[in-house]
Amino acid sequence: MVDQNARLAIIGGGMGGLAAAIALRRIVGVRATVFEQASQLGEVGAGVTVAPNAARVLDRLGVLDGIRRVGAVPDGHGVYLNAMGGMVTDAAWEDTAKQYQNIGMYRPDLIDALAAEVDPDAVRLGHRLTSVETVESGVRVEFDNGVTEVFDAVIGADGIHSVVRQAVEQHPEPVYSGYIVYRGVMDASRLPEDWPMISQVWMGNRRHFMCYPLQQRKLFNFVAGIPSERPLNGPWSGPAEVSELAAEFAGDGWDPRLQHFIGLIDKTFWWGLFDHEPLTNWSRGPITLLGDAAHTMLPHQGQGVNQAIEDSSALATFLASADEVADIPEAFRRYTAVRMQRTAILQNGSRRAGAMFDAQYEFADLAKRDADIRVGRDFRRSAVFDYDAQKVAEQALGRFRKVTHA
Ligand SMILES: Cc1cc2nc3c(=O)[nH]c(=O)nc-3n(C[C@H](O)[C@H](O)[C@H](O)COP(=O)(O)OP(=O)(O)OC[C@H]3O[C@@H](n4cnc5c(N)ncnc54)[C@H](O)[C@@H]3O)c2cc1C
User: What is the pLDDT of residues 249-278, one digit of tens each?
Assistant: First the structure.
């Protein structure tokens, strides 16, 4: 096992960076330093689903109970509906063993729950990374406040516009997908008493609307995907008018229940959706990537954070197999080989899920689209929710060792 005094830096104190700090501490025994550009740890006031595949990781790390306490486990399976509210299919919401369920999380609550498990002395706020380069004594990182330090290894968890990614390879930047989402949360006490405490998705022609409960059911999250011509060379999120959102789902072609829900919303903001072809490499020597920095994906399978959490467990498992600092590049290379295959499937799957929800491209026939959605339900449970990131990493380690010793 790599020395407990190994100097590891994580760039980015988002959900991926914090999950990595916890996993490195619990699985490898190393306290990594987390550098975050913001002056405090935080997140936008919206929702996110912790899926069974990430709940499994968080449970092993000993942090799931705290997350469940502040999240919302739905009453049962979710539903996919057509625009008029007719049932298309039920939606997977737990793993096959029925051990882990989807948990609706208010993002600031998830950050707080993860941050509570990280040594505050290991988090350096107000540090925006400007450059990273390999030098003889390790990896030199430089921040906009003038601080420069050298670490044995650096993990880039600095999100979609990652600076660390550019030190690994000249990757093309993520591209705007042509879709925006309106997002937000509403006070659940506004909803009718019989409003189902489950996830619901209405799918129309070229747009969809999703909602689910958060924060012990005190809040309800919503996300509406809409095609947009909005030029995104400036800001890629901002406040929006609720009337703009309501207009997208107005008229006789939409379920009056959905229109009632939208009528209760008092605040929303828009967000441009970015997509990325799977990268060809995530690691260069003692530098690697994790989370959106490595695999920006569309949100249509709700797997961005969940994949970052899977990454953290796999990364720590591979690092735990390194005997010394000199072995870290090989551990990163193995981590990359295993994780890139998994996340590329989800990047492509998320793009396809978006095409189905929004009936674009070849899905002009809505009846066919509905049939595809029904088939996708079972894939989601077995291939996405049942996946055990740590077990897969351990099995891969065994195979790598056989090759090394052959
Ligand atoms: C509409 C929408 C809905 C979504 N829903 C889901 C969902 O239900 N489930 C799910 O799993 N995912 C969902 N996602 C995706 C999810 O939000 C992302 O995948 C996730 O936030 C990625 O986490 P991360 O830690 O890798 O990156 P981020 O959350 O982007 O964190 C990166 C951190 O790095 C910091 N940083 C950036 N640059 C620097 C720098 N140069 N120096 C220092 N610090 C830096 C940032 O300030 C930030 O704190 C959704 C996304 C969208 C847009």
Answer: 999 999 999 999 999 999 999 999 988 889
Kindly state the helix (H) or strand (E) to which residue 366 belongs, with its residue range: helix 366-379
Identity of the highest mean pLDDT range in 299-303, 361-365, 379-383: 299-303
The answer, yes or no, to whether any atom of ligand 1 lies below 6 A from the CB of 132, is: no
- Cβ of 272 closer than 6 Å to ligand 1, yes or no, is no
Instruction: Strands of 70-218 (E only): list them.
Output: 78-82, 87-91, 103-106, 123-124, 129-135, 138-143, 148-151, 153-156, 175-187, 200-203, 208-214
Kindly state the DSSP code that residue 222 receives in the 8-state scheme: E
Say which amino acid occupies 192. Answer: P
Cβ–ligand 1 distance for 181 under 6 Å, the answer yes
8 Å CB contact between 113 and 63: yes
C-alpha R_g of the chain: 21
pTM reported for the whole predicted model:
0.95
User: CB 115: neighbour CB atoms within 10 A?
Assistant: 19
Express each pLDDT in 196-228 by its tens digit.
999 999 998 889 999 999 999 999 999 999 988
212 classed as catalytic: yes
Tokens of 160: 């979609």
Ligand 1 lined by 165 (C-beta under 6 Å): no
Domains of the chain by start residue, with CATH = 8-174+276-405 (3.50.50.60)
Q: Pick from 56, 17, 33: which is nearest to 119 by CA?
A: 33
Query: Active-site residue among 212, 335, 361, 387?
Result: 212
Q: How far is the CA of 1 from the centre of ligand 1 (A)?
A: 30
